[in-house]
Amino acid sequence: MMTRLYSSTVLGVDGVEVEVEVDFRPMAEKRTFIVGLPDAAVKESGQRVDTAIQNSGLPFQQGIFVVNLAPADLRKQGPGFDLPIALGMVAGAAEKEMDASAWCIVGELALDGTVRPVQGILPQIMEARRMGRKRIMLPQANAYEGTPVQGVEIYPVSSLREAWHLLTSDALPPPFTGLGREAHAPRDKDAAVDFDEIKGQPYARRAMEIAAAGGHNILLCGSPGSGKSMLAQRLPTILPPLSPEEALETSKIHSVCGLLKRGNGLVDQRPFRAPHHTISDAGLMGGGANITPGEVSLAHNGVLFLDELPEFRRAALETLRQPLETGQVVISRASGTMTFPCRFMLAAAMNPCPCGYLGDRRRACTCPPAQIARYRRKISGPLLDRFDLLMEVPAVDPSILASAPAGECSASIRERVAAARRLQSSRYAGTPFRNNAALSGKALQKYCRLLPEGRAILLRAVEELALSARAYDRILKVARTIADLEGTSDIQDVHLYEAVQYRAFEQSLRD
Question: pTM, whole model, 2 decimals?
Answer without folding.
Answer: 0.89
